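pinned: reference chain
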Amino acid sequence: MASDDNAAENSGPERDADFSKLEEREGASGSGQSAEAGSDDQSALRKELEETKDKYLRSLAEFENYKKRALRERSDLIKYQGERVICDFLSILDNLDLALQHSEADYQKLQEGLQLIHKQFVDLLAKWEVRSESGVGQDFDPSKHDAISKVKVDDAKPGTIISELKKAFFYKDKLLRPAEVVVAAEAEPEGDIRPEQTEEGDPE
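pinned: its structure tokens
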């Protein structure tokens, strides 16, 4: 009977209280572990966020440097775009200076030197795809010819270019400068020549 009484006592309110305390301790322990795990996750997220922010700032700085460098290079390209052409023309200037230094020594050599310089100049223009075009003998074309005068001639069709002061120049397919030309005008028919008049206004 005593053992039954002890068993009854162990299964009473005291045992229920012990179970409650155990559950509280387990609950407290679980809450602590959950809080600790949550804190670790937040730290990891903060670290990842800082790393992402750092990468973004570095990329932004690199892009800004690239833009500045590209703008500087473009500005230099525009500023010095004629550098290669100028360097090519310097050799012509050197030859011209040399010819002028010996201009009084021999006229024949001076003439030969000037012809050589002229050829060098034309070849250089061709290198840069610049070409000239003579309009003599062609029909007048207002898109590439400027008529500075008209002359009545018998041996040329009216509207034909009979001489030119300046040739037309083209850069690739673009007109750089129109030619300045003299155009043949239509001659007056002989029947339009009127006899001289007297002072009274009647033909003599």
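why pinned: The mean pLDDT is 80. The helical segments are 2-10, 13-79, 83-101, 107-127.
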